[in-house]
Amino acid sequence: MSSLHNPLLHDPRPKSIANCLGTNGFDVRKFTSYIGFRADEARQRITEAVSASYDDRDEDYSDFDDNDIPSSPPKKKRRAKKCVMARQTEDGELEIITPKQSNWYLLYVNNPMVEDERFQQKFRRRFRLPYENYVELVNDCRQQEIFERWMGSDCTGRESSPIELLILGAMRYLGRGWTFDDLEEATAISQDVHRVFFHKFIEFGSTTLYDRYVVYPSTYEEVKQHMAEFAMAGMHGACGSSDATHITSENCEYNLRNNHIGGKSSHTTRTFNVTVNHRRRILFSTRGGPGRWNDKTLVLFDDFVSGIRDGDILGDTEFELLERGRNGEIITVKYKGSYVIVDNGYLRWSVTVPPFKISNKQTEIRWSKWVESMRKDVECTFGIMKGRWRILKTGIRVEGVEAVDQVWLTCCALHNWLLEIDGLDKAWDGQGIPQSDWNGEMGDHDFEGLPEPMARIASTLDARNYDRSGMGAGSDVGIEERHPIDLDRIAVATEVTPTAAGTVRVVNNLGLGYFRSKLVEHFDILWQRHEVKWPSRRARPSHLGE
């Protein structure tokens, strides 16, 4: 430190701790002055070091000429592209395989055999979509801004990965549960590229595709087509079936694991509440909830079912139910609203109608079995979904619960799209098996080949032998234990007073017990008239005649 430029050289403050000692011992005031001196000395050293660095820079640039400035910035160096796949040439050298030289590109993009029926069948089985609809999906993705990075070239002129192969990879990942490394092997595109594209694809599928193909009915004109099969089966006013399913999430966030373990699986799962019509078309699906949530909790987040209960959705829908008057005459009563059929795990709302758990009435037992058979459509939908989109069955490996929700909603949209492609979303046009052909009271018939629900319900049920105790009808359990008091039937007498003729009853204003008793009575009247049909898309069995 130069003596000419050092103002602290002649500073009277103590320069060391030894100078802080006085005749009476350690002097605190001198020690405080010593601390201040050391701080000023440190700041002085830092100032001189910074000044020296500026002086050195001026010396380095003293000989610099303005003519030496380059006319353009230096070209940015890029990393050499990693070799995704390579093959050995005839000379024994390794040659990089480009995506356009992969088998998938040659088979399905460059020269597809679209006229060959065998090619069409294999393509549909491998990628779940018919080839012409795959081309439609590619063209649709090309118009989406979200896929812009795969539409051209980067700043160096290097062509991006073919979006046709990336979409095939996404469909194979959903349909057969492949890994991104498997897709790299089939397409010569890096697994990281496939992973990035897949997240964009499920974002597109859970928004654009889902809004396009999964649309719930909100007015009577829209819901009429979905109520046709239920009305045919004697369940007038029903618009669909609801149930929840669990989807395994293998990469759930650690802080969410406790909420996502439980329910029906020992793995972390997301649960979704889904409403479908009888043709297996998905009308609405909630976003995922933790696996610990049961049906009672999940239905509170279902905008469709909750909207029906609040009267915001299908509030203008009207239907009629038959019931017996005081003198035994059959009268028609109008109802306003709608409802869905569910199992007994849901909240006791009048718009969520479950079968009876325990009953000793023949009419209630028959109606409950009929409802249990009709609501298998939502269970069948889950089976179709998990069979067609294998990722839903084996477990979703992408990270985060948000990605799991997007995968599920994307699969729902593609499921409805395939129903439209195959023509399976059309109304069944009254194609059903009349009750008069399989009702046991109409005579002996050959029931072979009929749907299983008919075989179970065709014979007259004996309420005395109907036992849900699990101990058998001949057990020593008392009648009160085998057939406990049904609170729903008690509610019929106390909950709602009889309605005058011509009055319109609002479904969401009724109690479940009262409304369900009217549904049972309506179904029993139709049953006695032999006006109940089992909905069927197939033609009537030939052995039943014309």
Keywords:
13% strand; 16 strands; three-stranded mixed beta sheet; 19 helices; disordered C terminus; alpha+beta
How many E-type strands?
Answer: 16
Number of helices: 19
Distance between the termini: 116 Å
Radius of gyration equals 37 Å
**Total discrete domains:** 3
Main sheet, how many strands, which sense, barrel? 7 strands, mixed
Please report which band the strand proportion falls in: under 5%, 5-15%, 15-25%, 25-35%, 35-45% or over 45%. 5-15%
Main structural class: alpha+beta
What is the share of helical residues? 40-55%
Mean pLDDT: 81
Shape category: flat
**Spans of 5+ residues with little confidence (pLDDT < 50)?**
440-450, 459-500, 539-546
Furnish the topology, listing elements before pairings.
Layout: E1 21-22, E2 25-26, H1 28-60, E3 86-88, E4 94-96, H2 103-110, H3 117-127, H4 131-142, H5 163-176, H6 180-187, H7 191-213, H8 220-232, E5 238-248, H9 257-260, E6 261-262, E7 265-276, E8 282-285, E9 289-290, H10 295-298, H11 303-310, E10 318-324, E11 330-336, E12 339-341, E13 352-353, H12 362-374, H13 376-388, H14 391-394, H15 401-422, E14 432-434, H16 452-457, H17 479-482, H18 487-495, E15 504-506, H19 512-529, E16 533-535
Helix pairs in contact: 4-5, 5-7, 6-7, 7-15, 18-19
Describe this structure in words.
The protein is α+β, with helices and mostly antiparallel strands and 546 residues long. It folds into 3 domains: 1-42, no CATH class; 97-213, no CATH class; 241-463 and 504-541, no CATH class. It contains 19 helices and 16 strands. It has helices at 28-60, 103-110, 117-127, 131-142, 163-176, 180-187, 191-213, 220-232, 257-260, 295-298, 303-310, 362-374, 376-388, 391-394, 401-422, 452-457, 479-482, 487-495, 512-529; strands at residues 21-22, 25-26, 86-88, 94-96, 238-248, 261-262, 265-276, 282-285, 289-290, 318-324, 330-336, 339-341, 352-353, 432-434, 504-506, 533-535. A hairpin with a 5-residue loop joins β7 and β8. α5 (163-176) packs across α7 and α7 (191-213) packs across α15 (401-422). The longest helix has 33 residues, at 28-60. The radius of gyration is 37 Å and the shape is flat. The termini are far apart.
